Amino acid sequence: MAKDVLMDQVVQILHEAGFDVSERVNIRPGSFDIAARCGDVLLLCKVLFNIDGLSEETASEMRLLANLLGGTPLVIGAKTRDQMLEDNVIYMRYSIVSINVQTLYDYFVEGITSFISASPGGLYVSIDATALKEARIANDMSLGSLAGAIGVSRRTISKYEEEGMNASIDTVLTLEEILNVELAKPIDILNPSFLVKRQEKENKEKQAREQKDKEKAAAASGGGSAPMTTEAAEEYLKESKKKFDKDGSYIHPPAPEKEMLSYISTLGYDVKETSQAPFKAISKDKQSVILTGVSNYNPAVIKRARLLSSISDVIQTESVFLINGTSKVKSVQNTVFIEKKELVNIHGPEELIEVIEERKTPEKSKKQ
């Protein structure tokens, strides 16, 4: 229930900010809950009461989709661990900006920029390195004298100037007071590049520490491996009987959906498959982007086609369902249905777009 209330608040704020908002994605797991567009700004939003519920797999797909569609992934939530998210503070989860509804409102409706980000250990502000160095020189202060004035090391000041290293809120306020200049770097929710780089650096350091711990544990245990269990041995024998390609990879029998997506790629499209989106793939060439679903014809696909049409209208793409077998309809709203036997008779991207345009519901207001 808490998530439903949160979702309603998010949609209301986005509408107030002038966004067109898609229907809610109701499949689980889902890489995003709603798509929203205002002019050139496209958001793929995931709404979670606790932002720590975002998995790495979901975040990875959100970033992939946003990159392919020219948008920004965004998580909106209410709490993290055992505390509520603070207003106008930017949290990062797997390189995706995560904020509460008040921050969403302030940024998109009121135009208020955030300066504070959360990191392990507390809240921090990123320093404008160039502005700090210029202000220190203009005030005729050495690295040492400025460091002494705020109670940090000379090396710390040097890092602030060279790397724009994060500092505590109190430290930045003290620096601004001493140098009489604004030093806090604003955070662009739509392009948080320096926050992404910082988190990637933190993740690499964490992985390096974990790898060292594993190596120490292996050395302490003598480095030997545990004997193979009966279950593992049976699985090994099962795998050894499968057919393998020359490069050692297992040859999977082609599923119908794989066949149809492969055929789309032969038409000149770059086909990127998804695992948690309400469509099976994004098919993209220089001229068009197609949200591509694959299914048998059934009542469920009609419902999903309506959702796909809503999303594609907001994102401003085409939407197609490739049908394995016979379809009773040519389109559902603006989502076009193409049977497998029809698909193989299409011989180029222009011909595919022509079929899509012909089959779209003539009047967008027409109900299925």
Any key phrases for this structure?
Trna Endonuclease, Chain: A, domain 1; 434 Repressor (Amino-terminal Domain); 9-stranded mixed beta sheet; 6-stranded mixed beta sheet; 13 helices; DNA-binding
Order of helices and strands: HEEEHEEEEEHEEHHHEHHHHEEEHEEEHH
Structural class: alpha/beta
Overall pLDDT, averaged?
A: 87
Count structural domains: 3
Number of helices: 13
Q: Give the strand content.
A: 15-25%
Major sheet: arrangement of strands = 1-2-3-4-8-7-9-10-11
Short note summarizing the structure:
With 368 residues, the chain is an alpha/beta fold. It has 3 domains: 2-114, Trna Endonuclease, Chain: A, domain 1; 129-179, lambda repressor-like DNA-binding domains (434 Repressor (Amino-terminal Domain)); 256-359, Trna Endonuclease, Chain: A, domain 1 (3-Layer(aba) Sandwich).
Helices and strands in order:
Blueprint: H1 2-16, E1 20-21, E2 34-38, E3 41-47, H2 56-69, E4 72-76, E5 79-80, E6 83-84, E7 89-93, E8 96-99, H3 101-108, E9 116-119, E10 122-126, H4 129-138, H5 143-150, H6 154-163, E11 166-168, H7 169-179, H8 193-220, H9 230-240, H10 256-266, E12 270-273, E13 281-284, E14 289-295, H11 299-315, E15 318-323, E16 331-332, E17 335-339, H12 340-343, H13 349-359
